Amino acid sequence: MAESPQEVQLSLKAANEVKENSMEDNFVENEIYETRSNYQKRKWHWLLVAIYVVFALLGQSIATLLGKLYYENGGNSKWMGAFVQFIGFPIVVPCYYISSLKSTTRNNLNIKQPSTSTSMVALLMYITLGLLAALECYFFSLGLWYLPVSTYAIISSSQLAFNAFFSFFLNSMKFSPYIINSLVLLTISSTLLIFQTEAENEHSIERSKKKQVIGFICTIIASAGEGLLLSLTQFAFEKVLKRESFHVIMDVIIYQSIVATCVTFVGLFASGEWNGLRNEMNTYELGKTCYVLNLVFIAITWQLYSIGSVGLIFEVSSLFADSLSVLAEPIVPILAVIFFHETMNGIKAISMVLSIWGFTSYIYHHYLDKTNAKH
């Protein structure tokens, strides 16, 4: 029996309504899926950030104190102090191979691989980062040798100001009032120590005013190098590597460490400090076993810091990674007072408070950025 025109119209209308309802249901389901997916991504992102934060804070604080312990008990080699900051990279090789297996699985899904020219640029970048890291760590070793660890740690906080300066040109970072406030506070925090007049509590070496000035200059140079290194690393992630994976982080850490290890090893021989290492170990105040263990744990803790620092550059930014390093600076002087019985005078205390204030100002800026990005 043929349907009437009215019945046909009603049928078409009903079909359209079903289709519209189906499209609305699919849209709602997609929205729910995207919301859940974004939530899971944010959750994973902040979990990784938290892990990297712990690695960076613990690694830097413990490694700095162990480095000072090495010099306080008879260690004299500045190049060894730099060498052990990189020689520990083999401990992260298992992580590298795990990430390589995952990367191979993704490659089987026809993910585009970098070209030969890009690989050559990446290699040049690894060499540049390794050279810069080696020189920066050598100057840090000189600063740690000449200065009390508390003074050294607070001066090192100036690296955030240097990083912000380089990030403005290399990473197109925009300055907000909170970042400017942070940089001003951290600059004042470091500058205050120049006017420190109270004598530091010394143990094994009586440092002259001239040596303290040399230590201050070396630490400032090293801080500038660290700021540049972090900015260049972020630049490499964004402009050269252009890939997002844990495998890329491992590439940067391992290849950079290989180059830096070679440079510091050559420096150790060329300087002649290699000849005195056996005597240094035999005369070490805490004994041969503690001498070896001290250097081993310095190497391990610096690798923890490297993973945390590079991971934070990858997940957030170089300035955030640097600001976290600055947060570790107030921790070190407190631990130095406890373990090395260094004095905490008024200027150091004020400088430490300004460092914490500067870091908090930057963290608040980062929080506002994340909040605004959600709206």
From TrEMBL:
UniProt keywords, alphabetically:
Membrane, Transmembrane, Transmembrane helix, Transport
Q: Which InterPro entries match?
A: PUP_plant
Which Pfam family is one of this chain's hits? PUNUT
Per the record, membrane topology reads: Multi-pass membrane protein
Query: Where would you say this protein principally sits, based on its record?
Result: membrane
| Keyword DNA-binding applies | no
Q: Mention any one GO cellular component term assigned to this protein in its UniProt record.
A: membrane
Q: Which domain of life is it from?
A: Eukaryota
Q: Which residues form a coiled coil?
A: none
Q: Which residues cross the membrane?
A: 46-67, 79-99, 120-146, 178-197, 213-237, 249-271, 291-314, 319-340, 346-364
Q: Where in the cell is it found?
A: Membrane
Q: Which GO terms describe its molecular function?
A: purine nucleobase transmembrane transporter activity; purine nucleoside transmembrane transporter activity
UniProt family annotation: Belongs to the purine permeases (TC 2.A.7.14) family.
> Under which name does UniProt file this protein?
Probable purine permease
Q: Which organism is it from?
A: Lupinus albus (White lupine)
